[in-house]
Design brief:
Chain lengths: ~300, ~350
């Protein structure tokens, strides 16, 4: 029973981490007032770049770096179109998704059917062997720890540092921030690239740790889930952890229930993670003051300085 | 990108061909439900298409569309191929059945072939492979190799073909170990490596030590390899992904069928047919047996030989259903129609079939 529980928890952690990585990046982007719907595309490009780089160099950490850079580069394109050319953010984001997915498929043709290099899990002799707690806390791969570190870092930065204050100011009222002399476009560019880098990392996690291979459409809609999680979390970093792990838990529990032979229809179990996420979102949104306080007021609005 | 290039090339070729003489190339087209890069089901169909090109390349040009979702969008894709001048179109997934019939009704001069379905028309032939033959052998191997007596089975949707596969697997396993158990997870997708990996992990955590799948990615086998357990590949030989875990793989070999059908289209001898070939016709091939002791290998090879010669049929009656009733005459195989509509489990499967 304990073994089963352990394996379920470990599976939950791997299922939730890509959602967490992508969502925390998107949170920073949205806090600065930009709505980037292209997360799925950036994840795909990150996945293929990470896989390819790791395969070519034999080193998964090079893959992680490549995934990060690829996601950031693709988001730079988005940034250019929406911030400098002031195109519609929603449409551009959707186009970015399609572009990312297609580009990833094209780039990945050479990598199909290649067994991948995968990220090692941490192993501290003695400590990792502690029953139960050991593998969960000390036996994960590097990106899982990085994801928690990023959340902690983002939380600290947004709410306890000047840089975070500027980002939130830009997101809440870009005209005021501009009037104060902050470079709204500059801040947004940096945030968009951070979001792209995180989405790239999430994709890299998929192809380097989760299922070490490259196949087209391996992101399977996770980018969209990550977008929903950002709203679910009312733009608060630690709630993203809760949301990602809730979603991952329900998905994996659905499989567990099926394997136990309990007669709940599998289609219902497949739908359950989404249903529960919506339910929790509805419950959270009842606190209107909290929602109002945290929703970036200028989300999605293009910024054109009026002198 | 590839499909646009293929269509653009096809259009260009079509344009030049009409300017040329009447003896221009026959265009044969394929529609895949997944990416060619799945290294599984759709990949094998594409291997078949390449075989056609190699064998008949001077008289035939081929094109394909991949990642076509089952459902209304499929009709649009098939219709586009019909309009682009394809003279024979192979639609390779169960869910393309109704769209194929609809488009075929509009284009009576074009020949259609639908895989894994059951609806025919004057210009629509159907074809399928007797995957269950491979599954029976896999069941036998699993029962011999499993230490816990439980297999984990990852499946997509509850269509008859999938249920047939589970039943054949269990019949094979029960012939070696009557108490063999199977745990089933429905992932509701033909292809989602992440979900398949999660399902595999859950099954392994619950005590299954052999993994079987009716989904298209290599993820479950990789999970088996990681955990030091064993499994079976699906549609293609996945030994590269799991050198220590793969026992064998249930591979589809569409080459001879595709070449024969396109040749028939060229010769004008094509008629709407119903082909359901198995090991005997070379359509189902089990990849080399690995990671098992010699006596298990011999048993498997013997069963394959018996199935090939027709001496043995996995679904030989009487078969006891999960509810206790029996079906089929003693000593006689279940008729094809019964197999194609299979919507029940056999006794010994502890699962409720999603309706």
């Amino acid at each position: 029973m304990n073994d089963q529980l352990l394996s379920v928890i470990l599976t939950i952690i791997t299922a939730s981490t890509p959602l967490l990585l992508a969502a925390i990046g998107e949170l920073v982007v949205e806090r600065s007032g930009v709505l980037n719907l292209g997360v799925e595309g950036m994840m795909a490009v990150g996945a293929v770049s990470g896989f390819g780089a790791a395969l070519l160099t034999g080193n998964p950490y090079v893959g992680v770096l490549a995934a990060l850079v690829a996601g950031a580069l693709l988001s730079l394109l988005f940034g250019f179109l929406t911030l400098t050319m002031v195109s519609n953010q929603v449409a551009t984001g959707l186009a970015l998704t399609l572009l990312g997915l297609g580009t990833a498929g094209l780039m990945g043709e050479a990598f199909v059917g290649q067994p991948g290099v995968h990220l090692d899990r941490l192993y501290i002799p003695g400590l990792t062997d502690i029953p139960f707690i050991g593998p969960i806390l000390l036996g994960q791969d590097f990106l899982v720890y990085l994801s928690i570190a990023i959340v902690a870092g983002v939380s600290w930065m947004l709410f306890r540092s000047k840089a975070g204050l500027i980002i939130r100011a830009v997101g809440d009222s870009h005209q005021s921030a501009h009037a104060l002399g902050y470079s709204v476009i500059g801040v947004r560019y940096l945030c968009v690239m951070f979001g792209g880098a995180c989405a790239g990392l999430a994709g890299g996690y998929l192809s380097l740790a989760y299922t070490p291979q490259w196949v087209e459409n391996m992101t399977a809609g996770r980018g969209w889930i990550a977008l929903a999680l950002v709203v679910f979390s009312s733009w608060l970093p630690w709630r993203i952890v809760a949301g990602a792990y809730l979603f991952g838990t329900i998905t994996v529990m659905g499989f567990s229930l099926q394997a136990y032979g309990i007669g709940i229809p599998s289609q219902l179990l497949s739908a359950l993670p989404y249903v529960v996420t919506i339910l929790v979102l509805v419950l959270i949104s009842r606190n209107r003051a909290l929602m109002r306080a945290n929703t970036p007021a200028c989300l999605g609005q293009p910024f054109v300085p009026d002198r | 990108m590839k499909k646009w290039m293929a269509l653009a090339a096809a259009l260009a070729l079509g344009a030049t061909a009409t300017a040329a003489n009447a003896a221009d190339k026959l265009k044969a087209c394929w529609v895949y439900v997944g990416p060619v890069g799945d290294f599984g089901y759709s990949y094998q169909h594409d291997v078949g298409r390449n075989a056609v090109e190699k064998a008949l390349g001077d008289k035939v040009e081929t094109a394909f569309l991949e990642n076509v979702a089952e459902g209304p969008d499929a009709e649009r894709a098939i219709e586009r191929l019909a309009r682009e001048g394809c003279k024979i179109i192979f639609t390779t997934s169960f869910g393309f059945m109704d769209p194929t019939i609809k488009v075929a009704a509009k284009y009576p001069d074009i020949k259609f072939e639908h895989a894994t379905g059951y609806k025919k028309a004057d210009n629509v032939g159907i074809y399928n492979a007797r995957f269950y033959e491979g599954r029976y052998v896999m069941g036998q191997i699993a029962a011999k190799m499993s230490k816990t007596g439980t297999a984990g089975y990852i499946v997509s949707f509850p269509i008859p073909e999938v249920v047939m596969g589970i039943n054949a697997f269990m019949l094979g396993a029960q012939s070696v170990n009557p108490d063999f158990k199977v745990k089933i997870i429905w992932v509701n997708s033909w292809y989602d490596p992440g979900k398949e990996a999660d399902a595999a992990k859950v099954l392994l955590g619950q005590g299954a030590d052999i993994l079987v799948q009716h989904t298209d990615s290599t993820a479950p086998l990789q999970e088996a390899e990681k955990a030091g357990k064993l499994g079976f590949g699906q549609s293609s030989d996945m030994i590269k992904f799991a050198p220590k875990a793969q026992l064998t793989a249930n591979t589809d070999d569409w080459d001879p069928y595709y070449i024969a059908r396109v040749q028939a289209a060229l010769d004008g001898t094509w008629t709407s047919d119903d082909t359901w070939g198995g090991m005997k016709d070379g359509m189902v091939v089990l990849s080399p047996f690995t990671n098992m002791p010699d006596d298990v290998k011999k048993m498997a090879e013997d069963t394959v030989a018996k199935i090939k010669s027709g001496e043995f049929h996995p679904f030989t009656g009487p078969i006891t259903k999960q509810d206790g009733t029996t079906v089929g005459e003693a000593g006689k195989p279940l008729p094809d129609g019964e197999l194609l509509g299979m919507n029940y489990y056999i006794k010994g499967v502890d699962d409720k079939l999603p309706q």
